Amino acid sequence: MNYTVNKNISLGATVINFLNQRGASGTINGAELITDASQYYERLLTGTYIMPLTGQFSVSFNF
């Protein structure tokens, strides 16, 4: 949400992860049934995460 107070000042507010969901996710293709993970050692593996509930506020001054 942004609000312009006047032509020189603006206020802003942002809420991230409003529902406060938690966790990390990701899959390794072909790794569903493995019993020895050594073939994945020293390899780049990626995943995603959910940022925790966060509120951000901002003030902008224009000259």
Evaluate the radius of gyration.
21 Å
Percent of residues in beta strands: 35-45%
What is the string of SSEs from the N terminus onward? EEEEE
The strand order across the widest sheet is 1-2-5
Shape: elongated
Biggest pleated-sheet summary: 3 strands, antiparallel
SS-derived structural category: mainly beta
Quickly count the helices.
0
The count of domains is 1
Calculate the mean pLDDT score and round it.
86
Name the helicity range: under 10%
Q: Spans with pLDDT under 50 lasting ≥5 residues?
A: none
Q: How many β-strand runs?
A: 5
List keywords for this structure.
single chain; mainly beta; 3-stranded antiparallel β-sheet; 63 residues; two-stranded antiparallel ribbon
Describe it for me?
By secondary structure, the protein is mostly beta strands. The protein has one domain (2-61). It has no helices and five strands. The strands form two sheets. The chain has a three-stranded antiparallel beta sheet, with no helix packed on it. It has a two-stranded antiparallel sheet with strand order 3-4. The chain is elongated, with a radius of gyration of 21 Å. The two termini are 22 Å apart. The model has no long low-confidence stretch (mean pLDDT 86).
Short summary:
By secondary structure, this protein is mostly beta strands. The protein has strands at 2-4, 9-16, 24-25, 48-49, 54-61.
